[in-house]
Amino acid sequence: MTTLARSQALRATLLTCAAIGVVNFASVAFDRRDHLDSAVLAVDLAHGVVALGVITVLWLARARVSTRACELALVIATLPFLVGIWLPQLSDLRAGRLSEPLLAHHFLLLGIAVGSPTLRTSLALIALFAIHGLVLGHVLATAGPTPTLDHEPGFTLLFTVIAGLLTFTRARRRDMEHRLVAAEQRARVLSQVSAMLLALRDRANTPLQTLEVAITMLEADTAGDDRRLVLMRRALARLVAIQHALDAGELRSSEIEIPVDLEASVRALLDEAA
Amino acid sequence: MVLVVEDDDDLLEVLGLLFEHAGVAHAGARSLAEVQALGDRIAELTAVVIDINLGGGQPTGLDVAAWLRAHGFRGRVSFMTGHAPDHALVRAAVSDDGEVLEKPIDTRALLRIARADM
Question: What is the reported pLDDT for A82?
Fold first, then answer.
């Protein structure tokens, strides 16, 4: 897992947990049902504290936290919603003032879609809370006539599909970002290899020039029939060919697979030139 | 007379031997300071062959060429280089109307340059 993926997962999880904490503490402060029903109040308060705790742990461990830990953190911060968005609806049902009982589910599905650290966490939580919403809708509907549920389960299923699409869109964008970063890293390494090869080439050209002149002078003295000079000339030609191969213009990414090992890359290039 | 400006001792020596063997009058220098030390002999120069890179922190071959031009040299300037064609100094040499030869240069080409104005 790349550093980018890990930092993206951490950021998404922290923001989502912060949003969960804010929603729960806001409910404690402003939701009428929290003031009327102590169980709802206790659950929302506990949920807010859990979210705060998760944020604290993640923040303290941010330097070494893994993507999997982020997934676990989000699950821990989200699961209390199973109770937290169930109880208020039962409270409303008992009080006879049920109104848009699955609205929280719909927002939660979208929230998970935009805030989950990974694709699999998002899909799993969306599936879980979609089923949760459908079951709650069914429970409320069987308790008596509920006009606010007339469009269910269609609305919940629609939000589930939208959340799923959002999830896949985010995952695709993340994937493209990761590929872009990988490509930039690859370009940086190639650039280093290119600079190294150029430096080698520059350093080797002057002694090659000395050899070229010296061999030419010896050839002139021996009328070119000395086998030793023929071999020297051939060796010089091979060295010059290697020099040309080291030219940066010939160093294309397609010629070097993944130059993680610079030495191996140079060796491969020299072998090819020879 | 041909002036060779090259900071590599071996290459400077072998080029001296080459021109001597070919009967071409020549002088050698390793740096701009050594070129300046030639004094009145500069007026005898007909061509110069200059390495572009004369060592880290030293005046370049371009500086040598500019100094020679500023002191009345109107002959042929040929630069030698081990750098790639897209190196900044090489591009500057090309835009300076200099002839740029990439090392290793064919010895016959070097002799042609030296003999051109004989």
Answer: 92
Neighbours of A97 (CB within 10 A): 10
Q: Is A161 part of any domain?
A: no
Domain that holds residue B108: 2-115
Residue A110 is classified by DSSP as: H
Nearest Cα residue to B52 out of B95, B112, B107, B113: B95
Q: Which whole number is the average pLDDT over B6-24?
A: 93
Split at pLDDT 50, 70, 90, the class of B84 is low
Interface test with B, best of A208, A213, A247 (most B CBs within 10 A): A213
CATH number at residue B22: 3.40.50.2300
CA-based R_g, chain B, Å: 13
Q: Is residue A179 part of a domain?
A: no
Kindly provide the ipTM of the predicted complex, given to two decimals. 0.86
User: Which residue, A100, A133, A152, sits at the end of a domain?
Assistant: A152
| Domain extent for A223 | 186-273
Same-domain status, A92 and A203: no
Write the DSSP assignment of B82-114 as a string of letters: SS-TTSHHHHHHHHTT-EEEESSPPHHHHHHHH
CB atoms B80 and A209 under 8 Å: yes
- Distance (Å) from the C-alpha of residue B80 to the closest C-alpha of chain A? 9
- Pick the range with the lowest mean pLDDT from A101-105, A164-168, A245-249, B73-77: A245-249
Q: Residue B8 and residue B50: Cα distance in Å, rounded?
A: 11
- Answering whether pTM is above 0.90, one says no
The closest CB to that of A213, out of B18, B84, B86, belongs to: B18
Amino acid at residue number A10: L
Name which of B84, B86, B103 is nearest A208 (Cβ-Cβ). B103
Do residue A7 and residue A79 come from a single domain?
A: yes
Of A175, A43, A20, A30, the C-alpha closest to A111 is A20
Number of domains in chain B: 1
